[in-house]
Amino acid sequence: MTSRRSLNDSAEEIARLQHARAQWRHVGDARPPFAETPGPGQESVWDYPRPPRIEADRREIVVRSGDVEIARTRNALRLLETASPPTFYLPRADVRPDALTAAAGTSHCEWKGEAHYLTVIAGKQRFEAAAWFYPQPELTYAALRDHVAFYPQQLECLVDDVRVLAQPGRFYAGWITPELVGPFKGSPGSAGW
Asked: Band of the pLDDT at 7, cuts 50, 70, 90?
C-alpha cells in the first residue's frame, strides 16, 4: 500500500519537473529547423526529452589517462537531455577506488539535485573536479545513486573502443559519439537552447 506521504512526494516531484520544463524553449517535442537530420543508425540530440531520461547502455565504457585505467564497465547509464550529447554515469563499483577523492564545491541541477565533485587521480596526475556524483539524487533520478560521471575534456573516455569528443562549452560534460547529430548545446550561439 502506498502511503499518503509518498503520494504527496510524487505529486510534488511531478509539479517540480513540470515547472522546470516550462522554463525551457526546446523540450524534445519537435526537432527545430536548424537541427541536423539523423541518418540510419544515428540519433538526434533534439529528439531527447527534457526533463532528461535515463537509459541503460551495455557498450563497453572505459575511462583512462595514458596507461592508467580509471574505470571500465558494461553497466553504464546514459542521461539523455534535449540538445546535449549523453552524459554517461558509471557504477561506482566499476571505478578504481584509489582513483577518486573528494574535490571542493557542489552544484545544483534542476532535475537531478545536488552534485558533489571528485578529483581523479591517475598515477602521478591529478585532474581536479573531473568527475561528479549525486549522493541523494531527486526521486525521478534515483538510479544515478552510486554512479559517477566523468568530464571527457581531460580524460580519455571510450565507448566500444571509440574515443568520445567532449561537448563544447566549459560547463557541459556530454560525450559525443559517432552516432550523434546536433548541433550540440555549448556551441557558440547556443545559450538560449
From this structure: low
Burial class (CB in 10 A: 0-12, 13-18, 19+), 30: exposed
Residue listed under C-alpha cell 568520445: 164
Q: Please report the pLDDT score of residue 25 as a whole number.
A: 64
Look at residue 187 in the predicted model and tell me its pLDDT.
Answer: 85
Please give the distance of CA 132 from its chain centroid, rounded to a whole number: 10
What's the grid cell of residue 92?
Answer: 561506482
Place of cell 587521480: 121
Strand order in the sheet with 162-163: 68-73, 61-65, 156-159, 162-163
Which H or E element spans position 55? strand 53-57
What cell does 167 get? 561537448
Summarised one tens digit per residue, pLDDT across range 14-27 is 666 566 556 556 66
- Band (pLDDT 50/70/90 cuts) for residue 170 is confident
Mean pLDDT of the residues in the chain: 90
Question: 33 phi and psi, to 5 degrees?
Answer: -60, -25
For 146, the 3-state DSSP assignment is: coil
Give the cell for residue 93: 563499483
For residue 80, the 8-state DSSP code is E
Q: Quick one: how far is CA 82 from the chain centroid?
A: 12
